[in-house]
């Protein structure tokens, strides 16, 4: 049984997840709380290899490939889930056992919104399929940073990876998928407007996290 707290962060491209997680980590550490930051796909040797394959990026640089045109949505989902299974075993559960607060940049909700809704595999089907992978490793809290995809993508400074390079309609469907999930799991998923200042986003996030850990 887990002992710590598992907090995940979701959002479209350019929503500011990574910066927010960094600020929250500093805040929690200032309160003498043990926490770790992890991400998906990645955070294990297998996860990092799969990240290069599925996102077609390495060290921030886009890899030239025609994978976008050939990778089946089901295969894409399986790659993400393989990364997640290893991630849970190697990083998430051991950290929770040590009473750490786990801050995870993307998790299962991304698969449901991206592959389930945007790739048309079906939200309920992906929920059912991925439940076998995550078992009891369910987040205590999920913070979803909501932003218009046009605004979010305009914030992305580096070269776009394979998924970021998708058409705008795809990114709109991702946003719709997250909103469907927020309605489906209102106690766990909290929506924060990511178009406001970083300070306001941080305050709202801390308000939700404090309700969980205090």
Key traits:
two-stranded antiparallel ribbon; 214 residues; globular; alpha/beta; 9 helices; 5-stranded parallel beta sheet
What does this structure look like?
By secondary structure, the chain is of the alpha/beta class. It has 9 helices and 7 strands.
Largest sheet: 5 strands, parallel
Instruction: Please trace the helix and strand order, writing H or E for each element.
Output: EHEHEEHHEHHEHHEH
What's the number of extended β-strand segments?
7
Mean pLDDT: 91
By secondary-structure content and strand pairing, the structural class works out as: alpha/beta
* Distance linking N and C termini: 20 Å
Question: Biggest sheet, strands in spatial order?
Answer: 2-5-1-6-7
How many DSSP H or I helices?
Answer: 9
> Which residue ranges are poorly predicted, with pLDDT under 50 across at least 5 consecutive positions?
none
SSE topology sketch:
Layout (H helix, E strand, L loop, with lengths): L4 E7 L5 H14 L4 E5 L5 H11 L1 E2 L2 E2 L4 H4 L2 H25 L3 E5 L2 H11 L4 H12 L6 E6 L2 H7 L12 H17 L4 E5 L4 H16 L1
Parallel strand pairs: 1-5, 1-6, 2-5, 6-7
Antiparallel strand pairs: 3-4
Helix pairs in contact: 2-4, 5-6, 5-8
What's this, in brief?
This protein is α/β, with parallel strands linked by helices and 214 residues long. The protein contains 9 helices and 7 strands, in the order βαβαββααβααβααβα.
């Amino acid at each position: 049984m887990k002992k710590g707290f598992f907090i995940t962060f979701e959002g479209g491209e350019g929503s500011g997840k990574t910066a927010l997680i960094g600020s929250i980590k500093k805040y929690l550490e200032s309160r003498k709380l043990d926490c770790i930051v992890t991400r998906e796909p990645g955070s294990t040797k297998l996860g990092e290899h799969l990240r290069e394959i599925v996102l077609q990026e390495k060290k921030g640089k886009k890899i030239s490939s025609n994978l976008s045109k050939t990778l089946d949505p089901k295969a894409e989902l399986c790659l993400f889930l393989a990364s997640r299974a290893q991630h849970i075993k190697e990083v998430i559960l051991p950290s929770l056992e040590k009473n750490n607060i786990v801050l995870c940049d993307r998790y299962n909700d991304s698969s449901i919104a991206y592959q389930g809704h945007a790739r048309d595999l079906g939200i309920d089907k992906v929920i059912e399929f991925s439940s076998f992978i995550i078992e009891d490793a369910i987040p205590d809290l999920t913070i979803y940073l909501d932003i218009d995809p046009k605004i979010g993508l305009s914030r992305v400074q580096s070269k776009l990876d394979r998924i970021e390079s998708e058409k705008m309609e795809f990114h709109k469907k991702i946003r719709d998928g997250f909103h469907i999930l927020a309605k489906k799991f209102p106690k766990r998923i909290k929506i924060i407007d990511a178009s406001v200042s970083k300070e306001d986003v941080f305050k709202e996030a801390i308000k939700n996290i404090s309700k969980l850990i205090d």
